[in-house]
Amino acid sequence: MNLADLGWNSFFEENYSLFAGSGLVPARIITREGNVYHAEGTGGPVETTVAGHFSYIAAGQNDYPAAGDWVLLRESSGVYVIERVLERKSRFSRRTAGRRSDEQIIAANIDIMFITAALDGGRNFNLRSIERYLVMVNDSGAQPVIVLNKCDLCADTAGALQAASTVAGSVPVLAVSAVTGQGMEELTLLVGRGITAAFTGPSGVGKSAIVNCMLGKPVQKTGEQRADDLRGRHTTTTGGLFFTKAGGIIIDTPGLRELKPYGDTESLDNAFPEIADAGNGCRFRDCTHTDEPGCAVRQMLDKGLLDEPRYLNYLKIRDEMDILDGLKSEKGRMEKKAKEKSLSKLLKNYHKSEHL
Ligand SMILES: Nc1nc2c(ncn2[C@@H]2O[C@H](COP(=O)(O)OP(=O)(O)O)[C@@H](O)[C@H]2O)c(=O)[nH]1
Ligand SMILES: [Mg+2]
Ligand SMILES: [Zn+2]
Fold first, then answer.
1. Is 183 touching ligand 1 by the criterion CB < 6 Å?
2. What is the residue range of 215's domain?
3. Is the pTM of this model over 0.85?
4. What is the pLDDT along the chain (356 residues), one digit of tens a residue?
5. Would strands 196-200 and 112-118 be described as parallel, antiparallel, or unpaired?
């Protein structure tokens, strides 16, 4: 397998050129099991560990390799050691309160993240949830695509597509069915040779079924199947990189499926561009759009020019982001408290009307 087939491109090449003549060879991390990393390069699969210097120079968990990372290996008498992690084109992490460097990278270098929902008439199609995922994917550096699965169960797929388009902005929306195969060709075509894609979304929407469909073989167990066996063939849940017939790469790693959406201010604004735009008209530059005088966002809401459920979701997501970021100073904490109070009042009234 050559590097391009594994997802190598000019972005990584440029970074690698800094190490020209170093004797280090690139490889992509497939999975991590404890301290052992399974990588793949031009020489086939190798098992590696990180070089000892990682424990000295690594600023935090996010400096260690994760699934999808490109690393530089040093070989000596058949033993491979990871010397470097190349700059990441995108990254998804499990974020904890506190410093950004403490976040744990779940997967890196994903080009397309499919935000998956299901048109099964239940809770699996929720615009507020899609908004959250959009914020998270915007933040990661990957290109989001919204996938509405189980269209075989939906009487009005066009209506669902229309509804999704109201929150999607310029993000593509596709209706598919992993059961009938509808839309699967289009979906598979998006993931061309050397492009890395992954799926995120709530449990039960059919992510595993779609992946199996795209790969043409059951690599993942779906809700219906038992863990051990599928028509005599083994299925796996340990994750890794999988290849479509067209050469597209699907990265599947358990942590990705249950990622809690979060983001930063910029990605929030990208997912809610009309609110960000309206905010430019507020009297105060640091307006929180809750109870300030001269708030253009509130004025537009009052006139019905902004969608209220979207606005409330915006506040809620922003508040969660603030809680993660804002544990720095006592002063910040007190300010946040005051803000949260006004937010929780807003949300309480909103919950009463049972929109969320
Ligand atoms: N009717 C229908 N059922 C589906 C479709 N895709 C998945 N399912 C079923 O939905 C359930 C959950 O699918 P699974 O792939 O395990 O969901 P995951 O948790 O997102 O990985 C399983 O019982 C699948 O057979 C679809 O397109 N149509
Ligand atoms: Mg699954
Ligand atoms: Zn405002």
1. no
2. 110-257
3. no
4. 899 999 999 999 999 999 989 999 999 999 988 889 999 999 899 999 999 888 877 667 788 999 999 999 999 888 999 999 999 999 998 765 555 556 788 899 999 999 999 999 888 899 989 998 998 899 899 999 999 999 999 999 999 999 999 999 999 999 999 999 999 999 999 999 999 999 999 888 999 999 999 998 777 777 655 444 444 344 444 568 899 989 999 998 777 766 665 556 777 888 899 999 999 999 998 899 999 999 999 999 999 999 999 999 999 888 877 766 654 344 455 555 665 665 666 566 655 555 44
5. parallel
User: Is residue 56 in a domain?
Assistant: yes
Name residues whose C-beta falls within 8 Å of residue 107's C-beta, 6 or more positions apart in sequence.
Answer: 66, 67, 68, 91, 92, 198, 251, 253, 255, 256
In angstroms and rounded to an integer, the radius of gyration of the C-alpha atoms of the chain is 22
The residues with which 73 forms a beta bridge, in sequence order, are 25, 82
> Looking at ligand 1, which residue's alpha carbon is closest to its atom 17?
206
The number of the ligand nearest the C-alpha atom of 223 reads 1
Q: How far apart are CA 314 and CA 343, in angstroms?
A: 11
C-alpha 272/C-alpha 317 separation (Å) is: 11
- Under 8 Å between Cβ of 235 and 225: yes
* Measured distance CA(272)–CA(293) in Å, rounded: 22
Q: Is the CB of 153 under 6 A from ligand 1?
A: yes
- Specify the residue with its C-alpha closest to ligand 1, atom 13: 206
- Are residues 171 and 286 both part of a single domain? no
Q: What is the DSSP letter of 337?
A: H
- Decide if 105 is inside a domain: no
Same domain for 321 and 205: no
Q: Count of domains in the chain?
A: 3
Nearest ligand 1 atom to alpha carbon 202: 20
Q: Is residue 96 part of a domain?
A: no
